[in-house]
Structures are given as C-alpha cells and as structure tokens.
Design a protein that fits this description.
endopeptidase fold (from Nostoc punctiforme), rod-shaped, about 45% helix, two-stranded parallel sheet, 5 helices
Amino acid sequence: MSHTAHIPSHRKPRRSASKLALRAGVAGGVLSTIAVAGAAGPANAEPVTETIEMPTLGALDAELASAVSASAEASQQEALDLSLRAQEEAAHKKAAQEAKKAKDEADRKAEAERAEKAREEARERASRTAERTTLSASASSDSSGSRSYSADTQVASGSAAAIVAFARAQVGDAYVSGGTGPNSWDCSGLVQASYRQAGIDLPRVSSSQSSMGTSVSLSNLQPGDILYWGSRSGSYHVAIYVGGGMYVGAQNPSTGVVERSLDWDTPSGAVRIL
C-alpha cells in the first residue's frame, strides 16, 4: 500500500464525460441556430429602429378603474329600480286591500241598516195590529155590533177643499221617517203640510195633532177631519179623511203616500179642527 493513500486530495472531482458531452451539444445547438438566422436574413438589412409603444401601467389602471366604476353604477341603478318597483307593488297591494276592507265594511253597514229597517217596519205593523185589537171597542158600531162609516157624498169646500186637494196631490210620494216634503213625507208631516194650505199651523207629531180640536165618531166624518190610530193623546199614526169613506195618509216605506178605504186600515178615532 502506498504511504499517501490515506491523504485526501484537494483537487475538484472530474465531471463525467456524459455531462460534458451534453453541455457541449446544447451550446453547439444554440450557436447553430444563431448562425442560420444570420444567414437567412438579407445581407444589407438595416437595423430596426422603430419603437413599439406599449401601454403604460398607469393608463391600464385608469381604464380598469373606469370600467369597474361604470359597472358599479349600473349595478347600483338596477338595484334602485328593483327597490322602487317593489315599493310600488307593495303600495298597490296595500291600497287594494284597504279598498276591499272599506267596501266590505260599507256592505256590512248597509246590510245591518236594511235589517234594522225591516225589523222596525215589523214592529210598527205589530204595534198597529195590537192597538187596533185593543181599541176596537172604541170604534163606532151599530146595534148589531158591525161598524158603519159615513158614506157622505158632500163635496169639500173652503178650507177643507184646500186640505183635501193638497193631500191627494201627494199620493205616490215616498214615505220617509221625519219627512216634511216636498216629495217625501211621514204621516204627521203630510197632515201638517195639508193643514198649512188652509192657514192652520198644527204641531209636528201625531200625538199632538190628534189631541187638537173636537173628537168626532167615525160614522160622522167630514172631509178634512184628522184620523188617528192609537189613543187620542198617544196616537202613533194620523191621516186625513177626504170623503166617501176614504182617507189619504203617508203609511209606511213600503206603500208611501196612498188613498185607502177606512176598511183597509180602520182608524181608532177622529178629530175635527175646522
């Protein structure tokens, strides 16, 4: 064994032959490419002097910022439009709901008023029937117990004629509670207006009108007499006797002002004011 075998060498290790050949081949390829490119060009080619200006980074940033801003504004406007449409639709829906609610309430009130009016008419008819039954004994009757009424054929004259003519002229007008004309009446309003034609001012309500003048029997009536239903001081209905067993009165909402026979709705009594 050599005495120097254990001493480490300070020289760099040699590269392998394969690595050296690879590097030489790459370098040769590059040089060949450059040579071919030079040979392919014209011998007298001039060097390129034109400069191509590339957009600067600042210009690109400005354009990008402008595009982003425009897109943001468009998105914001679209969102605003959608919000306005939603608000309009909500307002229309709310208005429609409120209108329907108001209509339903009006219909309900109208139905309640119609029902109350029907009940009032029924009570009035029942009251009249009860009064007629209770006070039938006070009506005039002959010896056999049957009623007899004046079948006079006298023609009304003077004040009575004016009263009768006015009352008959209102036949066909509507009945309205509290009505005093000219086209709608209640019972005492018609009697009051008729007597006003003769210059006589009567009280407004039926019970006060039937308390006026002198009481007369139904068998001794004269045109212009006031007929009443109920007691004389507490009558609930009045009308005007027009002669021939007939009277004119504002009966009820169903009939309005009518001319009827005394037998159609027999009065309880009569008073004479003329």
